[in-house]
Amino acid sequence: MPVSRSHPAPGPGLPARTDRLLPGLATAALALAVAFLVHRLVPALPAMTLAVVLGVLAANLPAAGVWTAGRARPGLDFAGKHLMRGGIVLLGLKVSVMDVLGLGWLALVLIAGVVAASFGGTYLISRLFRLPPVTALLVATGFSICGASAIGAMAAVRRIRHVDTVLPVALVTLCGTLAIGVLPLLVHPLQLSAPAFGAWTGASVHDVGQVVATAQTAGTAALGIAVVVKLTRVLLLAPVTAIAGAHHRQAMRSGPGNDAQAKLPPVVPLFVLGFIAMVGLRSTEWLGAGWLEAGAALQDILLGAALFGLGSAVRIRTLLLTGGPALLAALASWLLIALLGLAAALLITA
Question: Helix count (H) and strand count (E) of the chain?
Fold first, then answer.
């Protein structure tokens, strides 16, 4: 008599998974094309910021909201999580260690100090406004380092739910967009030189695209130093996430009721190692301009799709009802970072 053997039911195959993801990914691609077109027509509006704004609009317009919350949701969630990690890896191709070291040791110490003070200050402000610790951590990471990219990296390291990244991304996008309009208006009242304004922008504005949009209003001299200062902050993403990962592992080991044999998250996730590898590759100067341009274009596509996916989860009504304290905390943190960045910029360019 043959012996029957039971087998576990197979999971969804690749075609079924693709069918689930394709509507959302196609929606993100269409929105991204619109964002790039608007950016081309109005260069002062960063494409990444436009991607988030389009996501928010798609989530809150009646017909589009039904689509993004329903059929398109799996693909949009996939973009917000996995494409974000790919974009973070390629972000490393923008960072050259030689350019960073060219700022000088005083500037490096000042920038690191601004990041540390911004991180700690933003976290404390967020907790004072009674934001949950997870939200406070993500807001502090995004505001102090490199916006939504840093939020995605920290969420992955700490195994924070995708849904919990939505509010921090909305806040960092809002405040970064505010900087594009406000900071150029302060150049003449504060009597800032172009290099000082560029350093201030790089030290205090959240996202790389927002830094470029803000600094270019003062010319190429401001833009050059702004990008280098900003990418120095981006470089700090690796040690900050490594420290957060080590702390999380220790908490899982020693926390009450935790199983010492449970699978622990890596101290440094694979995509952060990929980011470090891309920084090293860029610093060797082996890659030609064509490869760097292709990497930058692909990074914009991946991050733009991810940011649209995150924005499409923001519900304005919910944000207005529950996000008042978060908005006040974000504005207070934005002011703190602007002041810290201004002080550092004046010292760097003195």
Answer: 18, 0
Tokens of 185: 């208006």
- The pLDDT tens digits along the chain (350 residues) read 444 444 444 445 556 677 889 999 999 999 999 999 999 999 888 888 899 889 989 988 888 888 998 899 999 989 888 898 898 888 888 888 888 888 899 999 999 999 999 999 999 999 999 999 999 999 999 999 988 888 988 888 888 887 788 889 888 888 888 888 899 999 999 999 999 999 999 999 988 888 988 998 888 889 889 989 998 998 898 888 888 877 777 766 665 555 544 566 666 677 888 888 998 999 888 988 899 999 999 999 998 998 898 888 878 777 777 678 888 999 999 999 999 999 999 999 88
Q: For residues 220 and 43, give the distance between their C-alpha atoms in angstroms, rounded to a whole number.
A: 15
Distance, CA of 42 to CA of 58 (rounded, Å): 21
Sequence-ordered list of residues with C-beta below 8 angstroms from that of 277, at least 6 positions apart, any chain: 89, 92
201, 181 contact by CB (below 8 A): no
